[in-house]
Amino acid sequence: MRYSSAVERIDGEGAAGWGVHFAAYEARRQGEDVIILSIGDPDFATPEPIIDAAVDALRRGDTHYTDIEGRPGLRQLVAARFSARTGGDWGPQNVLVFSGTQGSLFASSLCLLEHGDEVIALEPMYLTYEATLKVGGATLVRVAQSAESGFRIDPDLIAAAITPRTRVIVVTNPNNPTGSVATRQELEAVAALAIEHDLWVISDEVYADLVFEGEHVAIASLPAMAERTVTVSSLSKSHAMTGWRIGWAIGPATLVEHMARLGLTMSYGVPGFIQEAAMEALRHHDAAVADMVNTYRRRRDLVHRALSEAPNLSVLCPQGAMYVMVDVRGVAASATQFAWDLFHATGVSVLDAGAFGPAAEGWVRISFTIADDDLLEGCRRIVEFVSNA
Hints:
Shape: globular
Strand content: 5-15%
Low-confidence stretches: none
Mean pLDDT: 94
Number of strands: 13
Radius of gyration: 21 Å
Structural class: alpha/beta
Order of helices and strands: HHEHHEHEHEHEHEEEHHHEEHEEEH
Strand order of the largest sheet: 2-8-7-6-5-3-4
Largest sheet: 7 strands, mixed
């Protein structure tokens, strides 16, 4: 039987990187002594009042169809927070609610890209980007940000990759997997290229609240960028709500109208009781986010300090997000081999960062989203493994 060519485009090369992670989960189900450092799923529980808001909404019968674009109250809250962050004038007409950042990115891709277009993605980049950006038939143009620079944005490399077919530049700020936070100057350089060549920018800012050093700058806040930027984000990381699947896209009103029609055919709206929980999160729980940031900062320092004791490892200290990148080229022939050998020898799972793109080959990503004692034990096992290699 014949299938659409789209089934090939939604199969990104990075999918194989999850092999160790899936093996670790299966081993845990079998009762084995496993420490999972391979996924960015916060160990925090969603704050109780947010859960209560969803339960109360359910008990009130909030189980019916709701606004395709998202409830006006939620869209207004998202717009108000983004306006405060950027100094701009955003309203609910600029916001569309989707099932997480991933859903927002997918919709942005389908509304902005088509066959013959090129989309520039800075790597290392999140694993799903490849398939998400190529699904409509566009060509993905990878622009590697070098390990030697700390995986910083290099505007000259972006400029060199732009062709007459380029339509979109994708940035992630803070970055997953590297934890780098783009400076204002770096973003200004990207913005200048977008304006010069009349390009869209898709900015994934799901980790914007999880910044430890430096200033988070939304590229949409820069001059002349509001009308050409789509900002995607969610509550998954900031409020420990990964499983709730609630996020949004922020952009020009006309684009939001197009995305709403797409939403009509994809999901027919996000459940109302989840949107009620999201409104509770946005209204009242900034203090909980601040506590999480402090915890993540402490865990980051813990991992950096512990792994720096290992011979022949180089540890990149992140400015944001919830991951530490570790260069294992001094101890293994490949990061894939390192990850599997580490798992078989110690029960610790880490992610081969090469899955995020060739720029990160030879590095592994370690998540610091588990309890301190388990995190310390995981680091101890890694140091022992490397020391005995």
